[in-house]
Prior knowledge:
- By secondary structure, chain A is of the alpha+beta class.
- Chain A has 17 helices and 18 strands.
- Chain A folds into 4 domains: 4-99, 2-Layer Sandwich (Uridine Diphospho-n-acetylenolpyruvylglucosamine Reductase, domain 2); 106-223, Uridine Diphospho-n-acetylenolpyruvylglucosamine Reductase, domain 3; 227-336, Alpha-Beta Plaits, CATH 3.30.70; 342-478, Alpha-Beta Plaits.
- In chain A, the strands form 4 sheets. Chain A has a 7-stranded antiparallel β-sheet, with helices on both faces.
- Chain B folds into 3 domains: 4-168 and 332-338, Uridine Diphospho-n-acetylenolpyruvylglucosamine Reductase, domain 3 (2-Layer Sandwich); 172-243, 2-Layer Sandwich (Alpha-Beta Plaits), CATH 3.30.70; 248-311.
- At the A-B interface, helix 7, helix 8, helix 10 and helix 16 of A face strand 7, helix 6, strand 9, helix 7 and helix 8 of B.
Amino acid sequence: MCDAQPIREQQLQRILTPLQRFMKAENIVTSVEALRAYECDAFTTMRQLPLLTLLPENIEQVQQIMRLCYQLDIPVVARGAGTGLTAGSMPVENGVLLSMTKFDQILEIDIANRTALIEPGVRNLAVTEAVAPYDLYFAPDPSSQLACSVGGNVAENAGGIHCLKYGLTVHNILALDVITIEGERLTLGGASLDAPGYDLTALLTGSEGLLGVIVGIRVKLLAKPASARVLLCGFASIENASHAIAQIISAGIIPAGLEMIDHTGINAIEELMHAGYPTDAAAVLICELDGSVDEVEDELARVILLLEALDATNIEISNSEAEKARIWAARKAAFPAMARLAPDNYIMDGTIPRRALAAVWQRINQLADEYQLLVVNVFHAGDGNMHPSILFDAMDADQRHRAEELGTRILELCIEVGGTISGEHGVGLEKINQMCLQFNHDELQQFHGVKAAFDAKNLLNPGKQIPTLARCAEFNGMHVHKGEIAFPDLERF
Amino acid sequence: MIDIPTLADQIAQAAADKTPLQLQGGGSKAFYGEAVEGTLLPLGEHRGIINYEPSELVITARAGTPLKEIEQLLEREGQMLGFEPPRFSDNATLGGTIACGLSGPRRPYAGAARDFVLGVTLMNGKGQLLKFGGQVMKNVAGYDLSRLMCGALGTLGVLLEISLKVIPKPQYEETRVIAADFTQMQHLLAEIGRKPFPVSATLLESNRLFIRLSGAQGGVAEASQHIGGDKLSDNDAPWLGVKEQQHDFFNQPKPLWRLSLPPMAPAVPASLFDGPTLIEWGGALRWLYSQQSDSLQQWAKANGGHAICFKNPLPGSPIFTPLPPALLALHQRLKARFDPAGILNPGRLYPDL
């Protein structure tokens, strides 16, 4: 810390004069008090002050900033709305924090082609709101959609409740306008359904700001379904709830959303939202069906038959937009509800094949007992994306340590059954060690190769998403579970 | 099955000797892309379905598995590949399908090949066996290198195993046929595109517009009523015709072009092509014959898309629309990171790649 101050001052001296030539003073933030607002994303346990924050107003300014940082070897971290959950947009020490909030315009709505050209700082929900008069919408709907920016959705390849049927961000964008670290502007993809060359639009999506800075996005718009109804029901056992998921999918039905909440989660939500969730159930399932009116009624009847055969209780079906909204609002309030149970909440994002759901769920509960921590399971069951939340108190060093270790055990479990450490939240800095569990030396080296092809000086969001080989060697060395088959009773690939 | 260590040695040796390799699955799409010179690396033997559980909506198979075998297996379980890939011959393999990244009539409505790729195991040009993505629908751990392989024509790695998302087959399908010219087609499709109709394919062929509807019978009936026209007695014929290029249109021994455009892009000027055209994908995919390589590629680009000479190219003209210099340089840097010796299908996508 003693040396940090002079370096910071020196770096500021180097960058400020050239910046002031093309940036308004009000868009250059240097005071420590003002910089506090940028020191973390929604994963508030990890914080770092940037050297300074820049708020460019146009693409030319982004290009000039990048050229300058490239020339001066100063790292750049791009930030959207800061709602990320993995410290992905946490600043780098003595680096520039590039806030894209001034890129908040919807540039074009092309109704006939059903696309929109937007700037990255546009809020997710604002896209759907803007095209609603034309009976269209933008499909990705992460729970943070009120606040999160589409640029951030692209950086993380965000999903949401409806991605089981309508896909992730990668499935709902056509083109990206990108500025490289050298200040070069590239257009990836196009207004057509494919583009010549490698699929770099897909590669950039989910690359967490390590490959380029997104300055424009062409999104796909979908027609609103004629009908959408939500079904809520309870189960006395985790097994039956899990069977219900597999059987709905096996019946050829792809629900627009298929969610599950465990007993603790149900009660936390009920206390906050009073949504009418059955508080005695071991699990509740929320299933949204959409399509034509006939299609929805037909599928609903089939789903109810199947649920009844699995002894589902308290089956409730939405009869109006208001009832539908009430059921979903409660689900989306899961995290605020949990915040009332403990000071801190470590949200996992592992994704597993659906068939392993019941076994993994039970194993997580056993692990929670072993680590003497409360874990609440709220998840996108339809696509196997689990969000177990570990409740703890960060002020208690021992609890914090146990929570971290339990988190790693849970993610390890996800990998063992053929899943992944992150379904939609990204790796950022928060899960960087667990990347070492999922990928081997050669695979990580290949990732670094891709990074180097875009950013040879490693200046864009350095240290995030892809761990260094040295970091993994150290982590795997300390990590006792690596290499053992810890849960021989589990089904595997 | 191919012995992986042997393949690794073979590739490492080729890299050391700088001997280019020509990757081949079933050879069904050998006509596609730029010509490659190199030692033939046959991969068709690496076949077999590794894992398929219908309730997971995922199939994992070795890259040499015939596409036909996969489609038949899915069919038995009432499922299908959502991107409806062309086979062109019974030899077509899963690996070739993904490497070419081709999608069929359902593409605008269900997604492209790249949208269904969940994970791959590949060998890079150094002979390293690498696994990216997985068997789950959502996966953001690391860069999405599986989708990058889609359409890369084997220039970044040898695909060995592929996991794909599959979808349930629609309960019911019918095709409507109505009289329409190009302008009427654009008008009608823009209008119904904003309605939640279960359109799953369209084709404009000499002033006849075919629209396929797939889904629950009630939803299809509602859309049929709105669209009008007649119900086609053979629902599959037009779609097989374009997907497998069995339609008479595709028989001509001249340069066949595939234009990918925004659906509402104007009609291709008559001066740029000869004879009839076929238009699929709601207007976003246009097939025609032309000798005017450069002007056609320029026109497509100016109108927001690109043109590929799909078959029978004119000697010396580029197959794929050339990339702007900065983008080509990025492609070259990427290629060098996967295949530093430049031995995997060099030149198949672009002569300098």
